[in-house]
Amino acid sequence: MTYTLVLLRHGESEWNAKNLFTGWVDVPLSEQGVQEAVQGGRMLVDAGILPDVVHTSLLRRAISTANLALDAADRHWIGVHRHWRLNERHYGALQGKNKKEIRDEYGEEQFMLWRRSYDVPPPEIELGSEYSQDADARYAGEPIPRSEALKQVLERALPYWEQAIVPDLKAGRTVLVAAHGNSLRAIIKHLDGIDDETISGLNVPTGIPLVYELDETFAPTVRGGRYLDPAAAEAAIAAVANQGR
Ligand SMILES: O=C(O)[C@@H](CO)OP(=O)(O)O
Questions:
Q1: Number of domains in the chain
Q2: What CATH number is attached to the domain comprising 49?
Q3: Cα(76)–Cα(73) distance, rounded to whole angstroms?
Q4: pTM above 0.95, yes or no
Q5: Whose CA is nearest to atom 11 of ligand 1?
Q6: Helix axes 150-160, 181-192, angle to 10 degrees
Q7: Residue 245: pLDDT band by 50, 70, 90 thresholds?
Q8: Which domain range does residue 176 map to?
Q9: What is the ipTM of this complex?
Q10: Residue 11 annotated in ligand binding
């Protein structure tokens, strides 16, 4: 008996296209991102993998991606759960800033520490500032961060994994998680047992489903899972890694 988990990073967003640090800023998909999401749904159909339930973040780029992909797969009717614990990593004071400008100003080493180190968070966002979420109704009463490294993302995503996603898998449901580059990196780190150094080199492409078969201990039967379009995934992973250059 294996469990089927599909991880799907949202399609390209308007801020991905502009090369801006996004984090918790709720930007829409770009036109290309919409197409990627639809294509992701078609890939699921072609692979014969039809989700029974979907989990998303509270951000529209993940919500829209799930809706578009599931509509393309004729699974628009399945149950849905949304939680901020699946949100993108909070990028702190970098939210809204251009990646290339930050790299030019602070240098490659600091840029990559903020972007991909396991435990160095960017500076905290100022409360009340343009790209802060402290007054956002969807997070009212929740212990939301002002900046996060991947470590903090893993710490807040894991309880959701254990308490909301694992029970769906245990019930035999094919689970789609439509989320973000860094919240999915945290889940992949946990699933594949990737160490704190190696995880800095792992990037997730937009819009290409990553399928894991998990054994009864929820360990992957194939480490790293499989992208439904491996060639497209490889090219897109390189593009994510090179952002800011
Ligand atoms: O800006 C962001 O929120 C993320 C994902 O787009 O960027 P990065 O890949 O640099 O962590």
A1: 1
A2: 3.40.50.1240
A3: 8
A4: yes
A5: 115
A6: 70
A7: confident
A8: 3-241
A9: 0.96
A10: yes
